[in-house]
Structure formats: C-alpha cells, structure tokens
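Practice set, problem 2.
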Amino acid sequence: MPGASLKPGDEIKGYAIQERVNRGQKAIAYRATKGGRSYFLKEYLSPTPLVSWFDGFTKYQSEFKRRIEASPEARSICYDLIEFFVTTKPPRHSEASTTYFQVYEWAEGGIDLAGQIAAFRKNASAATWEQRVTWAKVILGSIHRLHAINIVHCDLKPDNLLLFPDASIKVGFRLKVIDMDFAILSDQRAPWHGKEGYVGTPSWFSPEHIRSGGCPTTASDGFTCGLILYDLLADKNPFRDCKDDKTYTTRVLAHDVRPPRLQGKLPGVDEKRVVNLIHQLLNPNPTLRPTVLELNQALIGSTATVSFLAITTPAPAAVSTRIVPRSLSPIPPLAPIEPLKTPTSFDGGSTTSPPPARLTSIESGRLRLTFKGRSVDFNITTELGGLLLRSLHPDFGKYWDSAKQATLERRDDGWWVIASDGTKNETLVNGKRVPATGKRLSADDQLAVGREASRISMLPLVVTLL
C-alpha cells in the first residue's frame, strides 16, 4: 500500500530490513542487511514514480552520483550511494505500492556536530578552542570540494555534518556530509524546479530559500556555513533567538546581525579579516558573500585571494544508467538541462516568511484545509496525523492517528489523499472511504475520519485549492 512502512523481516531487492532508523517528511530510513553487510536504505514518500519529473529526477541522481565518484576528494566526504531503484513493496507487492529507494553505506562512530555545539555551549570544556577551529577548517574545506564539482548541498546545518577522528591526516578529523538526496547541481536546473520547493530547514534558510521563486546556489551553502561558524567560533548563531519565521525572515533579508565575537585567538591569522568574512557570509546579496574557500584560506593564514563565486564548471558528461521498475537498463546520454544563471543584481527580495516545513514554498498549487475558521496550507507532499492537525482543534489528536492517518500527495494532475493502513478510523472524502489507490481532491471536498458504513464522519476539513 502507498505510504505503508516496511517492517523487520521484509525484503526489498535482496536487502533485508532489520530496523527503522527514522521517519522524515520525504523518506523513511532503515538499517538493512545484504551479503552480511549493513546498509542505510531510504524509502521515498516523495517523489513517487507518478510525478512527471520523476524520470528527470533519477537522471539527475545518476549525474550527482557520477560527479562524486569521479572526484576522490568529494567522494571521501560523502556517504557512498550504493544504488537506487524502483520496486513494489510488501505485503502484496502490488503496482500501487511502487516506490523509489536509495541505498547508502552504513557508517558509525561519527561525532555529531550539533550535539558537540550544544555540549560546549553548556560547558566550555566540552571542546577546546583549537578543536573548534579545526572543525571549522575541515567543514569549509569539505564544502569547497563539493562546490568545485558544482554540487550545492541546500540543507547545511550541524545535524548534517558528522566528524570522524582520523590520526592519519594532519587536521585529525574527516568530515562526512549526510542528507544530500535533494542536493542540487549548480550548473543544471533541478527537474523539480517550479513544481516542488528546494530542501532547507526553518531557522537555517538562506535568503535564496526565502525569496519566492528563489533557487539555492553555492552562495546559499556559504550563508549556512556562516551560521555554523557563528556557533563554532563566536558567541552563537545570531538568529537562534528569533521567535518565529517572520522575525527570522525580516532579520535575514535586512542583514540585521552584528559581526561575530570570536571566542579565542587565531595566531598568525588576520582576525579582522576572518571576522569580516564570516559576517559577510550572512549578506542577503549572494554576490557579496565570500566563497567558503576564501574563508578557509583566511582561517589557515593563506595570503591567496579568491574571486567571489569563482567556481569552474565541468564539462557535461553522459549518464550510463537510468531507473525503471525492478531493474536498471542503459539510457541515452543525459539531455541538457537549463543552466542556472549567476545572480548579477539584488532587488531586496520578498519578506514573506517560509512555511513551517522542510521545504520552501513555490509560486502556486497550494492546498488549504480549513476547520471551523482555522486553516493550514500545504505546498508539498505531507503526512497528515493528529499531531500535525491539533493546531486546528485538540480533538484531531483523539480521532486521527497521531503520526500518519493519511498522506497528502502533490502530483502533476492535482492533490491526492492516500489513506494509511491499520488506522483506528477510516479516512473519508465526502463521507466515502478513500480507496486503496487514493482519491484526487477537488475544491470544497470534505476530508474527515470515521466509518462509511455507519455514516460517521468526524472533524470534516474543507479543501480549498489555491
């Protein structure tokens, strides 16, 4: 069934599910084994093979994988993407359950950077100043390696950076960057552009995430690196105290932030230059931000200069595989995708706050659910449950399954609702139970829970298409 989670003992293309690791808005992650080895397997809730840009998405992933594997430096900092495929899921393996999967290496023993920052904020002795400076250098150098092959992470934050001790290299640590399945290629338009938002996290959005119709660039990663460096080297992330998205947006777009106050000395380094570069990484105008390489050179005391946004574009390359249900087969060379243009001017942008979700908004196609005058808007595929809808009324927590009663799925032909298996109440549209294949929603439909046979329909949500 669409949206039904795998369980221990299930098998997908030879990978035996051992445990569920976490569940996000776009994917469910598992530990799986194959041939005596553990793997990190992701089952995608979005995109699905039903959206028009899915084929373009898989080609994009192939090119992304090719670039990392062709660059020893980039490959050393990214979790190895083993393979990706489309297949049906148990228990009945019906065509309606066709799902996209990615498989990564399984690695343990990394230092959680977010946890380390929280620890030394409470107790300064949890990390020495020298360690913090080293981590900053490793992070900046590693992100530069991605930018050098035209990869933009889009969702940089401490939670997505793991540090592994390594005595074999001078700095003593290796960085592993995670959560890159919705990273983008800076020289090729993402196939979901204009159809889905770009990945990002509230309170870590760059100005390009915030502005309507914006597209993240390497400068966007630079912005979030700046926030991380405020946490690592200065007093703290300057926007950590923003109470809501609107305040964050207003301050970010106004560059309402003072220069960082370094928490230690940098011998042999021009500290004023370092402070100025970190501060300028938060400039709302992307063309005025330094590159991560320039800041890294400043931290290590290099006198070399680097032009802003000076990244070499590699020549286009052919992609050797494409994804099709149940198997992989050869495809023609990757068709050109509209190239991105480097911004040359700055118009101030919109001050509309981003939605409280993992993805930014897009121009149109939103769906609104209203209950007794209170409403919530959606612009991406989202799991609906009592916890999410309690903001409309406390009773949603009683009658809707807490985590996932159903999924609102955005497709090219409109919004669909997909009911989850095993819920205590049926998912209904206009009093009728949602069929196994899902139900396309129309304006003024009523989405509720209850029992069709008993004509019980509780907490009806009115659908509005925006």
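Problem 2, part (b): a different protein.
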Amino acid sequence: MRRRLLQFGVFAGLCNFLAFWVAAVYLGGDAVNGKALEGHYFLSSHGRLTEVGSNVFTYSRCHVFSIVITHPLAMVCAFLLNRDRSK
C-alpha cells in the first residue's frame, strides 16, 4: 500500500507539472510572471506578455501555486520509493 501511495504521489506531481507546462504554452505564459494592471490581466513567458481575462489569470495563478505543493511532494515520494528499493 505504501509503495502504491508513493507511486501515486510521483505520478500526480508529474501530471500536474505537465498540465501546467501545456497550459502555459497554450495560454502564452503564467500569471506569476505576468501582471494585473488597471483591470487588464497579462500572462508572461520569456518577457512576452499575453492579455487574458481575469478568470484565466486566476486559473494560471492557482495552478502555479499547486506546482509549489505537488512538485516537492513528487520529489519526496520519488526519494522514498528509491530508498525503499535500496533496502
């Protein structure tokens, strides 16, 4: 059971990162690097700004923050899986 949960943690983290990357490429960037000015919302990628609606900006910002949680979680799960295999 422990091994399955750790595998799921790695898989979920990788899937979330892949979904973030695909969304950022499709939308033209992410909200953390973008900005909101006077009711206009911009995503940014490599210095290029793309104007989007407030809902897309909010989605992108939440997805970036979810990466902050799931990416380290996936790394910890991968480390524990590797440690368990070594035993």
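Answer key, part (b): The chain is about 70% helix and 20% strand. Helices lie at 2-27, 54-86.
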